[in-house]
Write a structure and sequence with these properties.
The protein has about 260 residues and is an alpha/beta fold. It contains ten helices and 15 strands. The chain binds arginine. Arginine binds next to loops.
């Protein structure tokens, strides 16, 4: 008899704890908590691509880890590049995660999270090329994704209004144009270019890096100017960099280990 009573007491105690946990959970996620919508342009593997109707990739995992750590509800939508920029500006979107480079020009209109990835522009072209540096592509047909840092790099190289620059709405469209022969080179982010070349061996593409012509870039999560979530997102970003989560995510999508110190400095 005695043990049965004890058992009942213990089970009773547990259900009280369980129930109160459920109630408090409901209070925080149910009523007031809004779902923040983040946009992206999901033809930018390994950072973002579509798997069915889900955005997957390094950015998707990173955003997930950050938002969980920050205790914020969110959804991640393939809005396309320009709609993402417009949406974050007019605050119909809470942010964007799309391998977005932190630039001074963008900082005039937007806020960014702390940097989470190091990148640089590179030149993608057909194997067997004579191109050795960015200077060599002057006079060639250049493909870029419209409004990206690849676009700016091309303009810097051959002039803002050069008719040699063809602009495309998505990253995938630039690589298609290269393979179709519509353009001779594409200027795009190194991580994406490397991933593309490796995963499309039949396209016979090669990359030319040029550290003298292209600048170091850092990706950040794009936020509306004055975003109330910036602080929580930055704190969460720092936590996942310190507790090993960032490194875990990194190793799922890239080889080697990330240089977290370079991001923090
Ligand atoms: N890092 C470059 C930029 O910010 C290119 C980003 C393109 N991202 C994408 N998901 N298509 O301009």
């Amino acid at each position: 008899m005695k043990t049965v009573k004890k058992l009942m007491l213990v089970t009773g105690l547990f259900s009280v704890i369980f129930l109160s946990a459920c109630v408090s959970n409901n209070e925080s996620s149910g009523s007031g908590k809004e779902t923040l919508t983040f946009g992206t342009e999901a033809t930018f593997a390994p950072f973002e691509s579509m798997e069915g109707d889900k955005v997957v990739g390094f950015d998707a995992d990173l955003l997930d880890a950050v938002m969980k750590e920050a205790g914020l509800d969110y959804e991640f939508k393939n809005t396309g590049w320009d709609p993402m920029l417009v949406g974050v500006k007019d605050e119909s979107l809470a942010g964007g995660a799309a391998g977005i480079t932190i630039t001074d020009e963008r900082k005039e209109t937007y806020d960014f999270s702390a940097p989470y990835f190091e990148a640089m522009q590179t030149i993608a072209t057909t194997e067997g090329t004579d191109i050795q540096s960015a200077e060599d592509i002057k006079g060639m047909k250049i493909g870029v994704q419209n409004g990206t840092t690849g676009d700016s790099a091309a303009q810097q190289l051959v002039g803002e209004n050069s008719t040699d620059i063809s602009k495309y709405e998505s990253s995938a469209a630039t690589m298609m144009a290269l393979q179709n022969g519509d353009v001779e080179v594409v200027i795009t982010d190194n991580g994406v270019a490397q991933h593309y070349v490796k995963n499309n061996p039949d396209a016979n593409l090669t990359l030319i890096d040029d550290k003298d012509s292209f600048e170091q870039e850092y990706y950040g999560i794009l936020l509306p100017k004055g975003s109330e979530h910036k602080e929580a997102i930055d704190e969460a970003m720092q936590t996942i960099m310190e507790n090993g989560t960032y490194e875990e995510i990194y190793s799922e999508w890239f080889e080697g280990t990330p240089d977290i110190e370079a991001l923090e400095s």
